[in-house]
C-alpha cells in the first residue's frame, strides 16, 4: 500500500508498546518498579516496525506494598542505589510526552496500549497516572491491543517466550522480566502479527469485492 499512514491502520489510534514490572498484582496497593515504552511507525509501503524507546526504573510510591514473591520473580531490588530510579510521575510524564508527539506527527487521535496481557499493564499505568495527578493522559481509558490474545489466534501460544519461538523471534529467558527487554520482544511480535496479516492479503481490506458468509450460503 503506497504512502500508507499509521493513522489509517488502527482507525486513528497510535499504538505504543508498554511493559511494566511491579511489586504485586494490585495497581492501587503495589508499585511500578520498571516501565518501558516503544512507539511504532509505518514505512511508505505499510509495514509496521518499532520506533523510539524509553525506559525508567521507578521508585515505589509512599506506603506501596512490596510483595516478596513479586520481587523474587522479577529480580528487582527497589533499594539498590544503582537503579537510578525516578518517581512514577516523572516516568509517566516523559513517556506521555513522546507519545503525544507521536500522536500529532502521525495525525492520530489518541494512543492505545499494546502489551502482553494488556489489562495488567493498562491498569497499572492508568492507576499511577491518576495517583500522580496527571491530567493529560494520551492513552485510551479502556481499549488495548493484547498480544497474548493475538498470539493465541495467530501462533497458538499465549506465553510471550513461546509465541516468539513460534514466530522465529529470538528470546533470551535470562533477560526476561526486564521491562525494556519484554517491551522490545512484544513490539517485534506485534509488528510481526500485523505485517503477517498484511502479507496474507488481509490489509487493506477489499471489502467491496469479498462476499460475506450469508451471500455464499445463498448461492
Number of strands: 5
Sheet bearing the most strands, described? 5 strands, mixed
Task: List the strand order in the largest sheet.
Answer: 3-2-1-4-5
Query: What is the helix fraction of residues, given as a range?
Result: 25-40%
Q: Order of SSEs, N→C?
A: HEEEHHEHEHHHH
Strand content: 15-25%
Protein structure class: alpha/beta
**Based on the structure, what is the oligomeric state of the protein chains?**
single chain
Label the overall shape: globular
* Averaged pLDDT: 93
Distance between the termini: 32 Å
Description:
There is one protein chain. By secondary structure, the chain is of the alpha/beta class. It has a five-stranded mixed β-sheet, sandwiched between helices. Helix 5 crosses helix 7. The longest helix is centred in the last third of the chain and has 21 residues. The protein is globular and about 55 Å long.
Q: What is the topological layout?
A:
Elements: H1 6-9, E1 13-22, E2 32-42, E3 48-57, H2 68-74, H3 88-105, E4 110-115, H4 118-131, E5 139-146, H5 147-155, H6 160-166, H7 179-199, H8 213-218
Parallel strand pairs: 1-4, 4-5
Antiparallel strand pairs: 1-2, 2-3
Helix pairs in contact: 5-7
Based on the model shown, name its key terms.
single chain; 219 residues; alpha/beta; 5-stranded mixed sheet; 8 helices; 21% strand
Task: Give a quick summary of the entry.
With 219 residues, this protein is of the alpha/beta class. The chain is built from eight helices and five strands.
